[in-house]
Design goal:
The structure holds 2 protein chains of 2 kinds.
Chain A: H1 2-14, H2 23-30, H3 34-46, E1 50-53, E2 59-62, H4 63-70, E3 78-79, H5 82-93, H6 108-119, E4 127-130, H7 137-150, E5 160-164, H8 172-180, H9 196-200, E6 205-209, H10 216-228, E7 230-233, E8 236-242, E9 246-251, H11 255-258, H12 261-266, E10 269-272, H13 280-299, E11 302-306, H14 307-315, H15 321-339, E12 344-347, H16 354-357, E13 372-374, H17 387-396, H18 403-418, H19 425-443, H20 452-466, H21 469-478, H22 480-493, H23 495-511, H24 518-528, E14 540-547, H25 551-563, E15 568-573, H26 579-593, E16 598-603, H27 608-614, E17 621-625, H28 630-641, H29 646-656, E18 670-676, H30 681-694, E19 702-705, H31 708-714, H32 719-722, E20 724-731, E21 742-744, H33 745-749, H34 751-761, H35 767-789, H36 795-813, H37 819-837, H38 850-853, H39 855-864, H40 866-872, H41 878-889
Parallel strand pairs in A: 1-3, 4-9, 4-10, 5-6, 6-9, 11-12, 14-15, 14-16, 16-17, 18-19, 18-20, 20-21
Antiparallel strand pairs in A: 1-2, 7-8, 11-13
Helix pairs in contact in A: 2-3, 13-15, 13-21, 17-18, 19-20, 19-23, 22-23, 23-24, 25-28, 26-27, 28-29, 30-35, 35-36, 35-37, 36-37, 36-39, 37-41
Chain B: E1 2-8, H1 14-24, E2 28-32, H2 35-38, H3 40-49, E3 55-59, H4 61-70, E4 78-82, H5 85-94, E5 100-105, E6 113-114, E7 120-121, H6 123-134, E8 138-141, E9 150-151, H7 152-155
Parallel strand pairs in B: 1-4, 1-5, 2-3, 2-4, 5-8
Antiparallel strand pairs in B: 6-7, 8-9
The chains are: A alpha/beta, B alpha/beta.
Chain lengths: 891, 156
């Protein structure tokens, strides 16, 4: 049965009827149920007899037949798209220049010229490849060599000899010796004859890279060889050697500047290799695709890239060209591989180097949630495009009142052709969602929405555009003048549409491809025309004129949105602009719009007379008002919409105009705690440190040590203190200042005292912070005592351990100790631990019966101090526990 | 009436306050020390260690000697605590109130020699102790009251 199926599929394939190799058809023809045939087909796939193509419907093809026909080994048994399979075949069948991405586009002319040069009889001509670093000059040379072999210009065993002259930059003699060969004894180290690279390259191709590093003497030596094909070995000026090879030079520097005139004269053709950015985004995408594919093969994982990565790679200007692009892609794979958890490798923005990521403005992206894309989404859908026809037609239509009707018809025709192009659903979906978002953001502000079909068409159009960049760039450069003319025509005729479409256009650039050309904007503009209301636009315009980077645009934008209508245009003026320039700007604007009957000018400040006297056309009504603000613009806008007469509108505004003023003093002084001790600044500083260290971290409160006597003498007139709100004074003696609360040091620790403090601090600390503060005070205060008593242990660490232990003990005993008790316990246990560490425990009981009477307490304490005991590797003896018990008993 | 004189570099801490005060049945503790008078924080630490129902007095050495000699302290059952052997020596030799002294704890430093688990003395202090022993005072070493009494003359 399986053999029968296989044979049937092969038959179909021989007829090139691949499409019939689906379940439906095979089941019908062979009279087997669909279920059964599906099972069998899948089984044969797993046995690598068939391969499955997951198109709609799934296709099943015979593997060996394909491998035979296309001379290509197929490793996978599943392909997402038929095209993927074809790429595999094409890739393996590609010969020499076909491997070069862009060989039929941007690199086409170069390839053709290289072919002509190397074919020039009898041994080709030397050529120079000149282009920035990373553009693929070495690759080009390698392909040239392959081409020569494939076309029998050189024999199959001819060699490709590559010399990087920069490696010899410090030792030009060595290069000369290696290139031309040398006789034994020609120089130190020449212990045998060496025939040189020219000899090895005989009959093949010699590639001299970075030729600008070649010293003048060596260049001259080459001339004779280039002219006559003969040379001397170094150290032997008698004998002539012969060699015939095709020479390819390459350099990143401008040839006229770095090479001898006499060398350049001998190179009939210099080929300029374009930089990556000159090659258009289509080729860039193909490069990105093929570079990722290469990595995919290498790491044997399926790679997906996020839509943001796609955009960044597409829009970043790689100064190091393909070389840098390749490094970036490799780096992104390394980074992603490091983080990868499953079989797929997902490349995210954070996998890209920082300098590359910074090339897009994340804030401008409309799709907040990025999407993962399969690599094949990078590939262009089709290379044949009808878009240039449309562009040509749009340029050639006469620019008169009929322009819109005719142009729109062409565009609609074009749209109807591409809207049914559903070749690539996943990719279209991504483009469509983004286009949708952008139009929604922009057009909703102007109160209209495009139809769904139109948006689908625009998305398809932009998708199409991505795959045509190189041709379009050429075409646009050729027709620059006509395009400029069309632009100014559209701008004056459809002023508002121009503004709106420009906004959309900017979004498109930020979200797809920042090299999109202006034609996209024109087409969008023409799509907008029918949505924008033209009733009174041709007679009234309103301009907001304000100083500052974007003051006018911001007001205009806000008001247009509030009015849900495009009413105001904005002229932003630099701060140093003079009134002549302003009037010129206004005049230019009015003449640009054309056919204006009424102008409303809302300005921020400056002389109104100067402006209206400067306006040129006398046939225009002008209404001017200064002190523009959002509310004023809104009122004027509403008036314009209601067709209110100019005078009436402005009279009303003048009547209403008044300011409401309200002042509220809200400046908050910073809170401060003063630490002040009658016994001097020493104690005050110590106290300050304890308080400061005890305040919870997120509390912004100043703590200052302050001289007690100064405080008493000049508390009211002290400039320094007038900047602060004094929360309290902490110290030994009450300075008795009316406005200041006083806290005695004892009160800080003794529980009764601390309750008072809570009142003073309630505005600044919440309950939890207050508890923490209280606990820290006791702890830090204990620390200052512990420090003096310990000799070997680190007091900070020890106290930390002990205080945690005491916390546990309080929990276990379900009791909160007084601060005094905590303090005592902290200090005592710290000293105790040091005594134990230094082996000085107390070994006598005060009460012989302690161990039996208080067994429970001993257990609890042991439990609470477990960590301390472990950390310091000590054991608290029962005799010592008895003394600890004393503290708690007295609590 | 003097109940006891103790040398403890930490002066009054809970252990001393609780165990010794009750063991000696003292009702007043005199801290005789010059440094504490200057340091409010230290003073406060001492105040906190004081057991309830016992009076606490802090005086400089000079003032302490004056007070002890004047007789104002006679009405108390007095427990005197000093920081160092030197201070103890002054109190003992400049008043006629003391017959014995307990060395409770002194801090180990570079120049001290360990006399017992908790007592470390410099050679100068050892001389002072020897002098006291020679003058027929009893000098004992004891951390807590329940420990065995060790006489200094046996270990020096």
């Amino acid at each position: 049965m399986e053999e029968k199926i296989k044979q049937y599929i092969i038959n179909l394939m021989e007829k090139e009827d691949f499409e019939s190799c689906n379940v439906q058809n095979i089941s019908q023809e062979l009279h087997i149920s669909k279920n059964q045939i599906t099972l069998l087909l899948n089984k044969m796939c797993n046995q690598h007899i068939l391969i499955k193509i997951k198109s709609k419907p799934f296709l099943f093809l015979e593997k060996e037949y394909l491998e035979r026909t296309y001379h290509t080994e197929i490793k996978e048994n599943e392909f997402d798209r038929y095209e993927e399979l074809m790429i595999l075949f094409n890739h393996n069948n590609q010969k020499d220049f076909e491997k070069l991405i862009g060989h039929d586009e941007s690199m086409n002319q170069i390839v053709e010229k290289v072919k002509a040069i190397v074919s020039y009889p009898p041994h080709g001509l030397p050529t120079l490849l000149y282009g920035p670093t990373g553009t693929g000059k070495s690759f080009m040379a390698k392909l040239t060599y392959e081409y020569c072999k494939n076309t029998d210009l050189i024999s199959k065993d001819a060699k490709f000899v590559q010399v990087n002259c920069s490696e010899y930059a410090n030792n030009p003699e060595l290069l000369t010796a290696n290139l031309f060969g040398y006789k034994k004894g020609a120089f130190t180290g020449a212990d045998k004859d060496n025939l040189g690279l020219l000899h090895y390259a005989n009959g093949g191709v010699l590639f001299l890279d970075e030729v600008h590093c070649l010293k003048a003497e060596c260049q001259e030596k080459l001339f004779l060889y280039m002219d006559q094909g003969i040379y001397h070995l170094v150290g032997d000026n008698d004998k002539w050697y012969q060699s015939k090879c095709r020479i390819i030079f390459a350099t990143t520097e401008e040839p006229e500047k770095v090479l001898l005139k006499t060398l350049i004269r001998r190179i009939p053709v210099i080929l300029k290799i374009p930089s990556l950015s000159q090659r258009g985004s289509n080729e860039k995408l193909e490069l990105i695709y093929s570079l990722y594919k290469k990595e995919e093969k290498r790491i044997n994982k399926k790679i997906k890239i996020s839509s943001n990565v796609y955009q960044i790679l597409l829009n970043h200007d790689f100064v190091g060209n393909i070389g840098e692009l390749s490094n970036t892609i490799q780096a992104s794979c390394v980074s992603a591989l490091f983080n990868s958890k499953n079989d797929d490798l997902e490349i995210h923005t954070y996998d890209l180097p920082d300098n590359v990521v910074s090339s897009i403005d994340i804030n401008r992206l409309v799709m907040k949630k990025h999407q993962m894309m399969n690599l094949d989404m990078l590939l262009p859908t089709s290379k044949q495009s009808i878009i240039l026809e449309v562009y040509n037609e749009l340029l050639s239509i006469k620019k008169n009142h009929n322009y819109y009707a005719e142009a729109k018809k062409k565009i609609d025709d074009y749209f109807s052709k591409i809207i049914f192009n559903k070749s690539d659903v996943a990719r279209t979906k991504y483009f469509l969602e983004t286009v949708n978002r952008i139009f929604e953001i922009v057009t909703s502000r102007y109160g209209f929405h495009l139809s769904h079909n139109e948006l689908v068409a625009i998305a398809n159009y932009i998708l199409e555009y991505n795959s045509n960049t190189y041709h379009i760039i050429n075409w646009i450069n050729k027709n620059k003048e006509d395009i400029d003319e069309l632009e100014s025509f559209l701008q004056s005729k459809y002023h508002q549409e121009y503004i709106i479409s420009k906004e959309i256009f900017e979004y498109l650039k930020d979200n797809f491809n920042n090299s999109i050309d202006k034609f996209v904007q024109f087409i969008i503009l023409l799509c907008l025309v029918k949505y924008v209301n033209h009733e009174n636009n041709d007679m009234t315009i309103a301009i907001i004129l304000a100083h500052g980077y974007s003051t006018a645009s911001s007001i205009a934008d806000a008001v247009n949105r509030l009015l849900d209508k495009y009413i105001f245009d904005a002229l932003d003026m630099p701060l140093d602009v003079d009134s002549n320039q302003i009037t010129k700007k206004v005049n230019d604007f009015i003449s640009h719009v054309g056919n204006v009957k009424k102008v409303y000018l809302l300005v921020d400040m400056g002389s109104l007379e100067e402006i209206y006297q400067g306006i040129e056309n006398n046939n225009i009504d002008i209404a001017l008002i200064n002190n523009v603000n959002t509310k004023l613009a809104l009122t004027v806008g509403q008036g314009i919409i209601q067709n209110q007469p100019m005078k009436e509108l402005f009279d009303n505004i003048q009547k209403q105009d008044h300011y409401n003023v309200h002042i509220e003093m809200n400046y908050q002084k910073e809170p401060v705690i003063l630490c002040s001790c009658a016994s001097g600044m020493g104690t005050a500083h110590k106290l300050k440190n304890i308080v400061l260290d005890s305040l919870p971290e997120d509390i912004k409160m100043n703590v200052i040590a302050y001289d007690y006597h100064t405080l008493i003498k000049q508390h009211t007139s002290d400039d320094f203190l007038s900047d602060y709100k004094v929360v309290c004074v902490i110290g030994t003696l009450n300075p008795n200042i009316d406005d200041y609360h006083f806290i005695a040091i004892e009160d800080l620790i003794l529980n009764e005292g601390f309750n008072k403090i809570k009142n003073y601090f309630e505005d600044y600390l919440n309950e939890n912070q207050m508890l923490l503060f209280e606990k820290n005070i006791v702890k830090n205060f204990s620390l200052s005592n512990v420090i003096n008593s310990l000799t070997i242990l680190n007091p900070n660490k020890l106290l930390e351990h002990v205080s945690l232990g005491i916390d546990v003990l309080q929990q276990l005993m379900n009791k909160k100790f007084k601060n005094q008790t905590c303090f005592g316990l902290y200090v005592h246990i710290c000293c105790l631990v040091e005594r134990l560490v230094t082996k000085q425990p107390i070994t006598a009981f005060a009460d012989e019966n302690f161990a039996s009477e208080h067994a429970q307490f001993i257990t609890l304490l042991k439990q609470a101090m477990e960590n301390v005991e472990n950390y310091y590797n000590v054991e608290i003896p029962v005799e010592e526990i008895e003394y600890i018990f004393e503290y708690i008993k007295n609590d | 009436m003097i109940k006891g004189l103790r040398v403890d570099h930490r002066l009054l801490h809970g252990q001393v306050a609780f165990s010794w005060t009750s063991y000696l049945e003292a009702d007043c503790i005199l801290i005789a020390n010059d440094g504490v008078m200057q340091d409010e924080l230290k003073k406060m630490a001492i105040k906190m260690a004081k057991p309830q129902g016992v009076k606490l007095v802090i005086k400089s050495i000079d003032d302490s000697i004056t007070a002890l000699n004047s007789g104002v302290t006679d009405k108390y059952k007095l427990f005197v605590v000093v920081e160092s052997v030197k201070d103890a020596y002054r109190l003992m030799t400049e008043t006629k109130q003391f017959h014995n002294v307990v060395l409770g704890g002194t801090k180990a430093t570079e120049n001290t020699k360990s006399i017992s688990k908790a007592v470390n003395l410099t050679s100068k202090e050892i001389d002072l102790v020897k002098d006291l022993i020679a003058k027929d005072y009893e000098v004992e070493i004891r951390m807590v009251p329940t420990e065995k009494k060790v006489l200094a003359k046996d270990v020096i």
